[in-house]
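Researcher: Go.
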Amino acid sequence: MVLGLIDVWRCHSLSSPRTIFPCPGHWHFSPLPEVKALETRQEKILVQLAELKAQVLSLCDVLKSNENPKSPRKSKREPVTADFVVNVNPESPAYSLLALKKLWSDVDFRIEPFQHSSVQGVIPEGFGRTRGCGESVISISLIWKKVNNAELVLSSLHESRILGEVNLLRYLSRLLDNHDSLPPEEATKIDGILDLSHQLVSQDNLKIKLSIINILDKKITNGNWFSTRKTPGIGDVAVWSALKQISPKSLPSNLASWYQKCEKSLNV
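Model: Structure:
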């Protein structure tokens, strides 16, 4: 009996002053409330971490599938059929019309030239009748006419017109390539190049023309195209056409090399 009391006293002396823990063999062990609360909190944290890990892994799978270089950027183009009129002044030929097949090799561009009574004299060379092959067919009636800017006439009934050569390229790009689906940064860059090429033709001030040429020269890096593609884009064709129209005496080094590259690539 004395030994039992001693055991109880020894266990009491080793325990918390608030809780008596019996020695083994006499009572069952009971953890502190603080320990139970800590264990419960730890279990909740582990569950939350497991859920967070699952979400992160799922997000990584989505990002990998979106960035997969093997996945096509866009699906095959649905066949497109269009028929419209383009009025062009022979004093400012829209040379971009000659490069349409280079931009969209799978489209059948059928260009039929006509001469308006307001135009007298020689018509620029190279703008003859063209026929191609492809599921998509774009029929263009090219009319040489005294106009201030190239005019794309979508409907003769309602006189719906799009003015400017660069806007003709914008229209075709949206019709055939869905230009609006490009990343915002790339679409903004292309629109800026198109605007500069339009100013290059429409601007009469020689100093401003030279300034625009220098700006374009700086936008070419490592002899590449203005676009991010490995082939010429609408921005390249627009600037090339503008330079052919104004025929500058000389070009900065980058732009000169790029222009020669255009001449060979566009093969016109």
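Model: Residues 1-21, 69-74 have pLDDT under 50 and may be disordered.
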